[in-house]
Amino acid sequence: MGEIRIGTSGWRYPEWRGDFYPRGLQQRLELEFLSRTLNTVELNGPFYGLRKPADYRSWRVRTPDDFVFAVKAHKEVTHLRRLRDAEGAVDEFFASGVLDLGEKLGPVLWQLPPTLPYRPDRVAAFLRHLPGPPVRHALEVRHPSYLVPELIDALTRRGVALVVAESAGRFPQPEELTADFAYVRLHGDRELYASGYSAAALDRWAQKVRAWSRDRDVYVYFDNTMRGAAPHDARSLAARLG
Questions:
Q1: Do 166 and 186 form a contact (C-beta atoms < 8 A)?
Q2: Which of 73, 150, 166, 191 has its CA at a distance of 20 to 30 angstroms from the CA of residue 231?
């Protein structure tokens, strides 16, 4: 059986205060609170701007020994360069301190923009430049042109997970497993980034996660953060999976 980790995309949201977070909890203690409730979180900040090694070391020491961070990679690679000639930007991202998370570093998430169609040569060059084990990588695609066997084969050869992303029908939702782990992002099944998951929907995802975990690790992140549902849904799914 693989390891199952369930968390949220980020942790600093005003809507969570006085609801998921106890009223009066200091903002600087929110990561500590979440990390003692869930066993992983996605770091979203590095997507918007490179962080410093001290930031990653701080996140590492403030969380329990068995906690894991996924890291959403810098948009310079995915959205600005659009994977073109991105080798230097990839190197700069990893030099910013990502590896300072040490044993708490989970997968690195590379989210592509919906306006970027599949360019096989560009994707192949990007994949070749990614650092290998023990670093794990996950690719989230948002253009339907990526749903071709050629991409599945390329990701499988490199051991890069194709992200299973539910996004209220807005973007593709592939479920091919291409690595020794599965990476799931739940953006909302009815309203993107906002709607909470019903009991029936959580039961459905629990069944999928349980099946995938028979032979691989599974990471699940709730990104329906806008109205505060994400941490509650994460706890509910975790309870279903024991």
A1: yes
A2: 73
